[in-house]
Amino acid sequence: MNMFVLFLIWRVLGLIVAFIADKIVPSSGMFQLFIKPIDLGFQLPNFIQDSANFDGINYLHIAKYGYGLYQQAFFPLFPFLIKIVSVVTNNNYFIAGILISNLSFLIGIFVFKKYLESIGKKPKEIVWIFIFLLTFPTAFFFGAVYTESLFFLLSVLALYFMQKRKYWIVLVVCMLAALTRLIGVFLLIPLFFTVIIQQQQLHSFWKSGNLCYANLKHLIFVHGKAIALMTAPILGLLIYMFYLAYAVRNPFAFYSTQSNFHAGRSASSLIFLPQVYYRYLNIFIHAQHNLIYFVAILEFLIFNLVLVVLLYDLWILWKRKDIVNRISLIGLNIFSLINILLPTLTGTLSSVPRYALLSLSFFIRLAEFKNKVVRSALVILFVTLFVILFVLFTQGYFVS
Fold first, then answer.
1. What is the dihedral of CA 30, 33, 39, 43, to 10 degrees?
2. Are 154 and 177 in contact (CB under 8 A)?
3. d(CA 29, CA 42)
4. Would you give the DSSP letter of residue 39?
5. Does residue 219 have a pLDDT over 70?
6. Could you tell me the CA-to-CA distances from 370 to 9, 193, 307 in Å, in that order?
7. DSSP β-bridge partners for residue 39
8. What pLDDT shows up at residue 46?
9. Which of 59, 235, 299, 326 has the most other CB atoms within 10 Å of its CB?
10. Which carries the bigger pLDDT value, residue 279 or residue 50?
11. From CA 384, how far away is CA 293, in angstroms rounded?
12. 237-274: pLDDT as tens digits
């Protein structure tokens, strides 16, 4: 499977959809006025420039002007890279953002393929994993001015080099991932499962007896380097927190500013999943049947689909002892679960369909479904939703 050809086909088909959408679907008109003062280079067609809608505008603004009011919710690495690359794009911040996103995704799919091969996935399984990933209803965000592609690249680099035991590379990549998105901190989970439990054979150590001071001392001395490696994602977050403490006197501003974006998020207290379900049931019963209602249904269905598949995947991995790299895959599964569950603590499933793109265990498990009818039906459903959501997104309507 040629990754470059696959990427090229995916991008060309996406641009065709965006071009047609720009001709037949009315634009909300929300974002063109915002992007013009940021994009100082030549003017691009709207159907291309629209890939910087919503969060993309904030990343471009931060790259050009620095952090503004409430923008601390957006982690710094992506806009920092846009600022650097804009030097070679004649100060065109949009082109810089598009280049970073698309190159990151192109390199990322090459690395992801290498990772899948390294954990023993067969060629047919790998093909299906990429089919599900590229047709997922919100996969168009990989080509937009968003952090999805950059974080995908950093995540799969971390996973691949964990397998190869290139620990210094893993340290740098994990630190950068935590400077890209908050969920990057939780890469310490696949780190722990892959590097310490699987590669260091820690499971045999636990069987030696109850944990006590002597065992703890032994653990630190024998696996000290591996344990130190796990601090890399935390270090990335701490760097941003120190900056926030200096700049706005609030090291947790990345969280406390969430509620100011009017996405139904609560930053004052944690809200647990049963409460989120209750909120969505109220929406389904009482809300008007408009686009917001459709998006709420979509968020609810995609969240539950991904959650059920991930829980099933975890059950299979826990039950079967003969799976190659089983321990490492359990670590990836737990990371994938946290990736979709963490945002729900703000009281909403908003943007979860987009966040689900980084729950990689979901796509790995889907590819292992043996029933061809189920797999084909899922792909048809994914493609249909992909087109609908991409059309709406390019025209300035919130979908995730």
1. 100
2. yes
3. 20
4. B
5. no
6. 26, 28, 20
7. 92
8. 78
9. 59
10. 279
11. 18
12. 999 999 999 999 999 999 888 877 656 666 667 889 99
Residues 30-50 have a mean pLDDT of 64
Q: What is the mean pLDDT of residues 90-95?
A: 90
Pairwise CA distance, residues 183 & 198, whole Å? 23
d(CA 357, CA 136): 8
- 8 Å CB contact between 396 and 50: yes
Distance CA 327, CA 214 (A): 26
pLDDT at 226: 72
Is the CA virtual torsion 54, 56, 62, 64 positive or negative?
negative
- Please state the rounded mean pLDDT for residues 156-175: 94
Average pLDDT of span 334-348: 95
DSSP structure class, residue 137: T
- Classified as helix, coil or strand, 298 is helix
CA distance 247 to 67: 9
Residue keyed to tokens 């009017």: 262
C-beta separation of 191 from 162 below 8 A = yes
* Bridge partner residues of 92 (DSSP): 39
Crossing angle (nearest 10°) for helices 77-85 and 55-65:
60
How far is residue 241's CA from residue 373's CA, in Å, rounded to a whole number?
48
Query: pTM of the entire structure?
Result: 0.93
Position 28: which residue type? S
CA atoms within 13 A on the CB side of 369: 21
Residue pointed to by tokens 């923008």: 71
- Given a cut of 50, whether residue 204 has pLDDT beyond it is no
